Amino acid sequence: MIKERLITGKTKLLGVIGHPVEHSLSPVMHNVALGEMGLDYVYLPLPIAPQNLEIAIAGFAAIGVVGFSVTIPHKQAILPLLSEITPVAQAIGAVNTVTRQDGKWVGTNTDVEGFIAPLQTTYHQDWRQKVAVILGNGGAARSVVAGCIQLGFASIHVVGRNVQKLEEFRHSWGNSPLKEKFQVHQWEELPQLIPQADLLVNTTPVGMYPQVEASPLSVEEMADLPADAIAYDLIYIPKPTLFLQQAEKQGAIAIDGLEMLVQQGAAALKIWLQRPIVPVDAMRQALQNHLGNW
């Protein structure tokens, strides 16, 4: 049983910024982890409207915030407010973790590490022979593309419904060397792509609670997914999503977004605390307990 912690004048502050942020599950897993380690820290949800972002970051420096997570809509807007951005965050063009180092704000992105963690630990495959098909071209797709490139996939296909947004996604990588590592496709091309997929990833919000009866793919589209493929949904409520239920009926292996959430959080905690090991199992269990029967 985790002992009740006392907040004192010495308690150090961590948190998550977003708008809205009250539904974030990060405080659940981080506060359990901090309690397990017996550290005098607290992790809070910090709602910050876009127009207040710059003044808030200055305020965090003034009150000695150790570090914070970044969620929608600030992952890209925060870039100009940071003194340093790690290469992985620069390549993706988004930051999800900020830490105070030598009086400066340093931004990185642990979403890539979070995404690839369950693939690396559970499925020991030579990804260099594999094909990844990624549904959606929003912010989450950026981390997934970078993760697939890091794993060394032979080909990576990003599929979207809106031609203009697809082009914007492609151009938004600028001069990044990652830009040449993936292709973009319109949704109509899916029938040709799905039969090739070794990894099929849903980065769209389709199927997320409360729209639990929705899936980004029709039953007909999913029917061509190879039986030995891995279907990966970044959504973790409900568990499993209709998308993953469809994939499992095809014989595919299913991974939901909970493990990515846990692993990106664990990676961030290691950075803030400058520790090589954090209680990942306790973080995962805390989220599972909190989500209950979802």
UniProtKB/TrEMBL annotation:
Domain (Quinate/shikimate 5-dehydrogenase/glutamyl-tRNA reductase) ranges: 124-204
Domain Shikimate dehydrogenase substrate binding N-terminal stretches: 16-98
Catalytic activity of the protein: shikimate + NADP(+) = 3-dehydroshikimate + NADPH + H(+)
UniProt superkingdom: Bacteria
GO CC, any one term: cytosol
InterPro entries recorded: Aminoacid_DH-like_N_sf, NAD(P)-bd_dom_sf, SDH_C, Shikimate_DH, Shikimate_DH-bd_N, Shikimate_DH_fam, Shikm_DH/Glu-tRNA_Rdtase
GO molecular function terms listed in the Swiss-Prot or TrEMBL record: NADP binding; shikimate 3-dehydrogenase (NADP+) activity
Listed transmembrane segments: none
GO biological process: amino acid biosynthetic process; aromatic amino acid family biosynthetic process; chorismate biosynthetic process; shikimate metabolic process
Active site per database record: K75
Entry binding sites for shikimate: S24, L25, S26, T71, N96, D111, Y236, Q264
Binding site for NADP(+): G136, N137, G138, G139, A140, L234, G257
Catalytic activity, EC: 1.1.1.25
Matches recorded under CDD domains: NAD_bind_Shikimate_DH
Pathway: Metabolic intermediate biosynthesis; chorismate biosynthesis; chorismate from D-erythrose 4-phosphate and phosphoenolpyruvate: step 4/7
Xref: Pfam families: SDH_C, Shikimate_DH, Shikimate_dh_N
Occurrences of domain SDH C-terminal (ranges): 257-288
Gene3D superfamilies in UniProt: Leucine Dehydrogenase, chain A, domain 1 (3.40.50.10860), NAD(P)-binding Rossmann-like Domain (3.40.50.720)
Keywords tagged on the record: Amino-acid biosynthesis, Aromatic amino acid biosynthesis, NADP, Oxidoreductase
Family, per entry: Belongs to the shikimate dehydrogenase family.
Role played: Involved in the biosynthesis of the chorismate, which leads to the biosynthesis of aromatic amino acids. Catalyzes the reversible NADPH linked reduction of 3-dehydroshikimate (DHSA) to yield shikimate (SA).
Subunit composition and interactions: Homodimer.
NCBIfam families: aroE (TIGR00507), PRK00258.2-2 (NF001314)
Name listed for the protein in its UniProt record: Shikimate dehydrogenase (NADP(+))
Organism annotation: Cylindrospermum stagnale PCC 7417
Lineage: Bacteria, Bacillati, Cyanobacteriota, Cyanophyceae, Nostocales
Gene transcribed to yield this protein: aroE
